[in-house]
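Good morning C.,

I know you're traveling, so I'll keep this short. The sequence:
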Amino acid sequence: MTEVKPLKYQSLEGFSERQLKEHHDVLYAGYCAKVDDIRTKFKDADTSQANAISSRWRGLSVELTFALNAVKLHEAYFANLGGNGQPDGDMLTFIEQDFGSVEDYRYNLMGCARVARGWAVTAYDLDDNRVYNFCCDAHNQGDIWNAIPLVVLDVYEHAYFLDYGTDRKSYLESFWKNIDFGYVNSRIAEFELIKRRSQLKAA
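The tokens, ready to paste straight into the viewer:
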């Protein structure tokens, strides 16, 4: 059974209790249940009839990527909130090396967030050995393989509509103020990205 991970905070500046509850307890939890539902349905799907156009197996396979990515992205989104929005530590080093300054990184990330239909993701590309911002139009559209997500920003309307209506710009400002760069730095440490970059530069 897919675990619904609890929030690590009770409130966020710029986010109402209702907005957080609807987003986490209803929408995210719903995707967790949907993942389990789809996986159960695979047991009764006939692979002998599978094809790339209209088979049940294809439908389940595609929708699993949508639901499972929704779970993973929402977990990363909620986990990287609860801070003060001040980049520091290893992430600050990456920002200065790959974007030039915090201002340039923020400008780039927010530009991506304004044009994306679903998600804006700051990820460390293991092939290029640097950080980029990527735009995703849906949970399963825009994924970049062999990259480690560091900052995940939900820009679907459900993430902010109760508090901000169609005012995405104000929502983005509130998101930035609440980024937990301590969590982001823990991701960098978990995958030893500083060590990786140093080793590749020395090679």
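Safe travels,
E.
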